Each structure stands twice: as C-alpha cells, then as structure tokens.
Amino acid sequence: MDLTKIPKLKHSISSNFFLLSGPCAIEGETMALQIAERIVKITEDLKIPYIFKGSFKKANRSRVDSFTGIGDEKALKILRKVSETFDVPTVTDIHEVSDAEKAAEYVEVLQIPAFLVRQTDLVVAAAKTGRVVNLKKGQFMSPESMKHAVRKVTDSGNEQAIITDRGTMFGYQDMVVDFRGIPTMKQYAPVVLDVTHSLQQPNQASGVTGGRPELISTMARAGIAAGVDGLFMETHFDPANAKSDGANMLHLDLLEKLLTQLTALRTTINSL
C-alpha cells in the first residue's frame, strides 16, 4: 500500500500518522462541509495526511427505526462536494456488492464494515473498482486472520489495502483492543486504529449503542505508541444530537488539542 497513490492526499510523505475522520453518517450538506472545513484546517496546520469519512448509508442498525441515511445518491454527491471543495480524498463504507461501483464513482476509498469483512463477493467487488480498500477487522476475528482478507484484495489485482482495527467483542456489551495485534497486522498492510468504534458498547437493552468517548484520547495515544500507521475517529459538532453513533464520537471542539498532542507523541516515537 502506497499512500502517495491516494488521489488528493496531502502530506503523504510526511512521517506523521494519517487520519480518517468525519461524522458517522452524512446527515446533510451543511453539516458535512462544516465538519470537513474544521478538520482540513487542523490537519493542514499539523501536516497530517487526511481523508474525510462519512457513511452514505447505515445498514447495520440495532433497531428498524434507527437512522439509515438521507438517500444514497444525495449523500454520495455530498461526499463528492466535500472532496471538490477542500481537495481531500473521501472514504465511505459499502454493504452490498452493488454499492461498490456506485460509491467508487464518488469516493477514493471504499470501506468494508467489520461485520462484513469475511464476505468474499463484497471485498472482491470493492477491490475490482481499483479504489483503496479499507478492511475493518471483524470483532470476531483474530489479527492473523486478516491476512486472508487482504489477500482477497490483492488476488483481485488491487495492491491498495488498509486494515483498520476496531476492537474485539468482549462479553456481550463491550469491546477491547489487543495491541499485540498491531505489529501482526502490519505484516499484511498499513494498520489504522479506530479509536471511536473501539470504545463502543453495543447490544444495549435500549437498542441504542453506547460508548466511552472520555477514553478516546487514551485509546489514540496508545495506538500511536503501539506504532499504528493511521487513526480513524468519528467527530461531530453536536454528538448528543447526531443521528448515528453519537455516544462514542469525539466532540469537534476537542479534535485540535488531541491531534496536536498525538502529533507530538508521534514525533517522539519516530525519534526513538
């Protein structure tokens, strides 16, 4: 995987970590542009390679009345507008084989959700678009097993794969990250740590996923210390009223301070 091959990715030859960040879901054009503008400014100042993240639809929901999106084409066009407005690459997750080609027309990176990363047809369809494929490690999978997911991408003629760890299911309602898996998975592809989904508390009795956002900085610092290549974090200017995953998102006002600290930590790690 060569970061310099991702279109529009700035600072790709810097020694900093790269960042996938944005809201969980695209709720509208104004909110997406507002969040993107803030993150682009911060990452430019800190020379962090940045990819804007936003789901064009949410297929994996706890309840049938949960928010799923504003319409596929509408959300994808907003992702394209973010990319064109701020000259940054974008990433969105796909859930069905038919999503791959559709989403690839609008974004630079296709993300395979953790629950679907063993779905061969989906992974192969994403790979065959030629886009970068971000493979989220299943909550039920070992780090070693992710080499097979990466191989599905490379065997499809696409060398552009990333692995993102988002924790492993611990009991029924909690997630943990085993940092021993980071160096293991780095043998197969660049590794990203999803510091917000790793703090999810799924399967709550209410049917609404919980989270521990107060531990986001702890998780992120641990990831940098463990040698991850990139970080994934969802952020919103009003997490309490976000339409998806608000319980584990970072408030946008806290992002600059955290990324400044993480950049300093990365510099220290690189000097050792």
From TrEMBL:
Pathway: Carbohydrate biosynthesis; 3-deoxy-D-manno-octulosonate biosynthesis; 3-deoxy-D-manno-octulosonate from D-ribulose 5-phosphate: step 2/3; Bacterial outer membrane biogenesis; lipopolysaccharide biosynthesis. GO terms for molecular function: 3-deoxy-8-phosphooctulonate synthase activity. InterPro entries: Aldolase_TIM, DAHP1/KDSA, KDO8P_synthase. It is found in: Cytoplasm. Its EC number is 2.5.1.55. GO terms for biological process: lipopolysaccharide biosynthetic process. Keywords: Cytoplasm, Transferase. SUPFAM superfamilies: Aldolase (SSF51569). It catalyses: D-arabinose 5-phosphate + phosphoenolpyruvate + H2O = 3-deoxy-alpha-D-manno-2-octulosonate-8-phosphate + phosphate. It is an enzyme of class 2 (transferase). Residues 16-268 form the DAHP synthetase I/KDSA domain. One of its GO terms (cellular component) is cytoplasm. PANTHER family: PHOSPHO-2-DEHYDRO-3-DEOXYHEPTONATE ALDOLASE (PTHR21057). Belongs to the KdsA family. This is 3-deoxy-8-phosphooctulonate synthase. It comes from Poritiphilus flavus. The gene is kdsA.
